[in-house]
Amino acid sequence: MSFSSDEVNFLVYRYLQESGFSHSAYTFGIESHISQSNINGALVPPAALLSIIQKGLQYTEAEISIGEDGSETMIESLSLIDAVMPEAVLLRQQQAHNSKNSVVKTEASNANGNEGTANHADSMDVDVSIEIPSNRATILRGHESEVFICAWNPTSDLLASGSGDSTARIWNMNDDAAASSGNQLVLRHCIQKGGTEVPSNKDVTSLDWNSDGTLLATGSYDGLARIWTTDGRLANTLGQHKGPIFALKWNKKGNYILSAGVDKTTIIWEASTGQCTQQFAFHKAPALDVDWQTNSSFASCSTDQCIHVCKLGVDKPIKTFTGHTNEVNAIKWDPQGALLASCSDDMSLKVMFSMLLIIA
C-alpha cells in the first residue's frame, strides 16, 4: 500500500469543497498546488475522504473485537479520536479480552450444573436481526455505483432510484422480471462537451415524483435538475444552480419544482417550461433541504444553521428560524403546514409553530 501527499491533499481539498468550506478549499488548493497534480477529479467519488476514514475505523474496531482464535466479541462503537490514540485502542482490546474470558467462565460454570442458568439467559443481549429469505425479497440490479435515494411513484408500481453512476432508473415492480437488468429504464444524466453529449460522471442524489405520478424530477451533482416522463424520456433540463443540487421537491399542484444547492440558493422552477421563476439567495452557506408549505411557500435549511420560510413573489424571507447550533440537515412541514420540524448535527430536533419552539 502506498499513497502520495498529492493524493491526501486532493482528498482534503474535495472534503472542504463538499462541506461548504469554499474559502478554505480555495486557499488550501492554492497552497497545496492542487491544479498541478495529475489526479482526475471526475473519477474520485464524493465523500472519498470520509469513506476511507470510515473503512480505517472499521478495521481498527475489527482488530479490537476479533481475537487470535477468530472469535468475535461485541464492543461499543469506537470514536475517530479514540481510534488514533494507541492507549485508547489498547484499553479497548483489554476490555474485550476480559469480557470474552468472563463469558467463557460463566458458560463453564453453567455447564457444571450451577443454578441460575435461566436467569443468565434472560439477562443476555439478544441479537434480534432477521435475515429476509431470498423468496421474500426482490433485488434490483443494474446500478454501477452506490445507490443514494429511491422514491415510489404515487399512482403506480414504479420505483425510481438515483446513483453515483450518473443515472436514475425507473423499475416496474408490477413485473415479476423487475430484477433483471433488461427491465429497467435508464435515465442517463449527460452534459454537453465539445458539441456532443457525454455522461456527467456526477451523482444523482435527489429525486421526486409529481403528485399524479406522470413526471419524475431528478437533481444531480452536475448542477442540473431534470424532468423525465415515466417512459424514460427527458422532458426538460433546469440549469441555473452553480454547483451540486442537494434536494428538490414538486409542489402538490404539480406546476412548480423547488430545489436547493451548494451555491447557497433555492430556486422555484416552472415545471412546464423548465424556466427559473424565482431564485432565493438568503442563506450564507449551502442549502441542504427544502419542503413546500403551500403551493407557493416553502422552508429551506442550510449549513448556516438557519431556516428561512419564503414565498413566491416575495423578495425576502417571510420568517427566519434560528436556534440550531450546527448544520440543519433536513426539514419537514406537517400536513397542515402549521408545524415545521427540523433536525441538525447539534443532536436535536426542533418543532416550530410561529414563534413557539419545542425542542426534542
TrEMBL record:
Gene: Tbl1xr1_0
Main localization (coarse): nucleus
Keywords of the record: Nucleus, Repeat, WD repeat
SUPFAM superfamilies the record matches: WD40 repeat-like
Localization in the cell: Nucleus
UniProt xrefs under InterPro entries: Ebi-like, LisH, WD40/YVTN_repeat-like_dom_sf, WD40_PAC1, WD40_repeat_CS, WD40_repeat_dom_sf, WD40_rpt
Any single GO BP term: regulation of transcription by RNA polymerase II
Top-rank taxon: Eukaryota
Entry keyword annotation includes Cytoplasm: no
UniProt xrefs under PANTHER family: F-BOX-LIKE_WD REPEAT-CONTAINING PROTEIN EBI, WD40 REPEAT PROTEIN
Start and stop residues of the WD repeats: 140-181, 204-228, 238-279, 321-351
Protein source organism: Araneus ventricosus (Orbweaver spider)
Gene3D superfamilies assigned to the protein according to its UniProt record, in alphabetical order: 1.20.960.30, YVTN repeat-like/Quinoprotein amine dehydrogenase
Keyword Protein transport applies: no
A molecular-function term among this protein's GO annotations: transcription corepressor activity
Gene Ontology CC annotation, any one: histone deacetylase complex
Compositional bias annotation for Polar residues: 100-117
Classification via Pfam families: LisH (PF08513), WD40 (PF00400)
Family: Belongs to the WD repeat EBI family.
Region (Disordered): 100-121
Identification of the protein by name: F-box-like/WD repeat-containing protein TBL1XR1
